[in-house]
C-alpha cells in the first residue's frame, strides 16, 4: 500500500485511469445481471429475491472474512460500523428491493431508464468535491448521457415491456426510489473508502456483505409474516441458483471491482462508470427477449458511449498543471 498526498487537486494517472475504467466496465457487466434476475424467477416476490441474494452474500462474506476478522475489527473505528450499516442498507437491501419491484412491475427497459440517471446524479454531487473537475467542463458528457437516457425512455414508452406486471407507475416510483438509494450509496461509499486507506477494497466489500446479511436476517420474520405462495422443488432450485449466482457474481465480484475502481477514479468519473450497468442490463434484456435493439436503443448506446469518452477526455488533463498526484494502491 503506497500513498502520496498533496495539497493540490488530485488527478489520476493514465494507467490508473484505464485500470479503473476496466474495473468499472467489469462491475457494470456483473451488476447488469441483477436486472435480469427478477425476470428469471418472477414467481417470487421482491422481498424473497432480496433475502435470497443477501443471505447468500452474507454467508459467503462470513466464510471469506473469518481468517482476518480480528485484524479488521481492530482497524476500523467504531463510527465506521455505522457507516457500513447505512451503506449496506442504501446500496444493497433497499436498492435491490426497490429495483426488483420496478423490474417486475414496469419491466427491464423502464428500470434501466431511471437507473441510467445515476451517472448524472453522482457526477453533479461529485463536482462539488474539492479539486474535482468543474461541472461546466462535464456539461457535454452530461448532455450526452441525458440524451441517451431519453432515447431509452422513448423506446420504453413505444414498446411495452414483455412479461411486466402492467403497473408502470408503481414500477416508475420504485425505480426512482432505487435511484435515490443507490446515489446515496455511490457517493457515501467512495468517500468512506477514501477515509480508510488501511482497509483493502476486497475486505471492505466483505464487511459490507456481513452487514447486509445481518440486515437480511432481520427481514426474515417480515417475509414469514407476509406469507408466501407455494412453489415446487424445481422453482425453489431455480430460485436458489439465481440467488447464489447473483450473490457471487454481482455482490462479491462486482462490488470488489467497483470498490477498486472507486479508489482509482475521481467521484465525477465514478458517476460515468455507472452507465455500464445500464448498458449491460439492456443487453441482457435484449438477449432474454430474443430480439435486436430498436433504433432508439442504438441511439442511446451511441450517446452513452460518447458521453463516457467525453468524460474520460476531461479527466486526462490535470485540473492544476504541476500538481503532485494523490493516489492509493491496495
Secondary structure layout plus pairing:
Elements: E1 2-4, H1 14-31, H2 33-40, H3 46-65, H4 69-75, H5 78-106, H6 108-115, H7 118-126, H8 135-158, H9 168-195, H10 201-226, H11 233-264, H12 267-273, H13 275-289, H14 295-315, E2 327-329
Which class best fits the helix and strand makeup? mainly alpha
**What's the overall average pLDDT, rounded?**
78
Give the N-terminus to C-terminus distance in angstroms.
5 Å
SS field, number of helical segments: 14
Helices and strands, in order, run as EHHHHHHHHHHHHHHE
Fraction in beta strands? under 5%
Helix content: over 70%
The total tally of domains equals 1
The side-by-side strand order for the widest beta sheet comes to: 1-2
Task: Give me some keywords for this one.
330 residues, mainly alpha, two-stranded antiparallel ribbon, 76% helix, globular, disordered N terminus
Q: Care to describe what's here?
A:
- By secondary structure, this protein is mainly α.
- It has one domain.
- The protein is built from 14 helices and 2 strands, in the order βααααααααααααααβ.
- Strands 1-2 form a two-stranded antiparallel ribbon.
- α1 runs parallel beside α13 (275-289) and α3 packs antiparallel against α10.
- The longest helix is centred in the C-terminal third of the chain and has 32 residues, at 233-264.
- It is globular and about 50 Å long.
- It starts with a strand and ends with a strand.
Amino acid at each position: 500500500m503506497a500513498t502520496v498526498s498533496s495539497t493540490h487537486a488530485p488527478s489520476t494517472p493514465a494507467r490508473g485511469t484505464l485500470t479503473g475504467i476496466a474495473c468499472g466496465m467489469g462491475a457494470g457487466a456483473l451488476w447488469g445481471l441483477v436486472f435480469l434476475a427478477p425476470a428469471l424467477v418472477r414467481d417470487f416476490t421482491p422481498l424473497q429475491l432480496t433475502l435470497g441474494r443477501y443471505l447468500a452474500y452474507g454467508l459467503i462474506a462470513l466464510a471469506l472474512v473469518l481468517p482476518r476478522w480480528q485484524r479488521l475489527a481492530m482497524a476500523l473505528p467504531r463510527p465506521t460500523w455505522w457507516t457500513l450499516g447505512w451503506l449496506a442498507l442504501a446500496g444493497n437491501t433497499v436498492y435491490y428491493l426497490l429495483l426488483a419491484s420496478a423490474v417486475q412491475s414496469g419491466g427491464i427497459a423502464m428500470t434501466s431508464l431511471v437507473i441510467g440517471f445515476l451517472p448524472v446524479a453522482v457526477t453533479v454531487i461529485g463536482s462539488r468535491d474539492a479539486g474535482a473537475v468543474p461541472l461546466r467542463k462535464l456539461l457535454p458528457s452530461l448532455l450526452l448521457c441525458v440524451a441517451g437516457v431519453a432515447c431509452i425512455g422513448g423506446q420504453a414508452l413505444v414498446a411495452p415491456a414483455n412479461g411486466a406486471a402492467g403497473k408502470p407507475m408503481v414500477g416508475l416510483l420504485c425505480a426512482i426510489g432505487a435511484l435515490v438509494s443507490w446515489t446515496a450509496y455511490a457517493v457515501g461509499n467512495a468517500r468512506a473508502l477514501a477515509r480508510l486507506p488501511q482497509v483493502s477494497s476486497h475486505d471492505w466489500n466483505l464487511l459490507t456483505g456481513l452487514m447486509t446479511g445481518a440486515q437480511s436476517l432481520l427481514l426474515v420474520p417480515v417475509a414469514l409474516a407476509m406469507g408466501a405462495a407455494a412453489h415446487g422443488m424445481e422453482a425453489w432450485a431455480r430460485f436458489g441458483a439465481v440467488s447464489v449466482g447473483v450473490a457471487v457474481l454481482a455482490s462479491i465480484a462486482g462490488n470488489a471491482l467497483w470498490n477498486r475502481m472507486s479508489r482509482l477514479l475521481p467521484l465525477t468519473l465514478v458517476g460515468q462508470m455507472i452507465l455500464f450497468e445500464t448498458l449491460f442490463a439492456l443487453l441482457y434484456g435484449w438477449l432474454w427477449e430474443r430480439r435486436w435493439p430498436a433504433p432508439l436503443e442504438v441511439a442511446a448506446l451511441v450517446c452513452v458511449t460518447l458521453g463516457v469518452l467525453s468524460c474520460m477526455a476531461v479527466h486526462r488533463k490535470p485540473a492544476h498543471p504541476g500538481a503532485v498526484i494523490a493516489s492509493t494502491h491496495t
